[in-house]
Design brief:
With about 190 residues, the protein is α+β, with helices and mostly antiparallel strands. Helices cover about 25% and strands about 30% of the residues. Strand 6 and strand 7 form a beta hairpin. The protein is globular.
Length: about 190
């Protein structure tokens, strides 16, 4: 539980700092991100338990990556992250999960995610800010990628990419577990620092 508390304090600090840099009040950030002011107050006090959708909406609104909300100070030139060292940000009803492994630094950061989806388990995502590009590489199993209402089957050994500024859903398909690596390429912007 100490790790969870520390992670929540980091998110609280980073949300408050990014909101201040953007010159947004709690009310304005809440309106733009579609998050209640009460939830934002609690989050900035390191209370509550924000879900992945809330973190994505806040990051998109603040013009930063999800991991910029979650990461502490840089630890050096090379970072090695083990999958079990990162808590899932999303857990599906059948045991699937999504872990944000890391985000690259620089003016156009890239988030690297590890996903596991069980058959018929899905994660619907709201559209991201303009310029976001997602790439999905299936390492085992199969998913149905739904982009703007159109279904695309992506199987082990295949990679798909699409503009993330449209509604999209990831759905496990077939009879076995699907494992995939997803990258989220964020557009360049001056406010993209933690």
């Amino acid at each position: 539980m100490a790790e969870t508390g520390a992670a929540l304090r980091t998110v609280a600090h980073n949300v408050r700092a990014a909101r201040t840099r953007a010159g947004l009040s709690l009310e304005e950030l809440g309106r733009r991100a579609q998050v209640s002011k009460g939830a934002l107050v609690a989050l900035e006090k390191a209370q509550g338990n924000p879900n992945l959708a809330t973190l994505v909406r806040l990051a998109d609104t603040l013009g930063i990556s999800v991991s910029a909300l979650m990461q502490g100070p840089s630890e050096g030139r090379v970072r090695v992250v083990a999958a079990d060292a990162v808590a899932p940000l999303w857990t599906g009803e059948h045991g699937g999960e999504a872990r944000l492994m890391l985000t690259t630094s620089g003016p156009a950061p890239v988030e690297v995610w590890r996903w596991r989806l069980e058959p018929d388990e899905e994660y619907p995502s709201h559209p991201h800010q303009a310029g976001v590009v997602e790439t999905v590489s299936v390492t085992s199993g199969r998913i149905i990628l739904v982009v703007d209402g159109t279904e695309h089957t992506v199987e082990a050994g295949q990679t798909a990419t699409f503009d993330g500024d449209t509604p999209h859903t990831y759905r496990g398909s077939g009879t076995g577990t699907c494992h995939l690596i997803m990258t989220v390429h964020l557009p360049p912007g001056p406010t993209r620092t933690a």
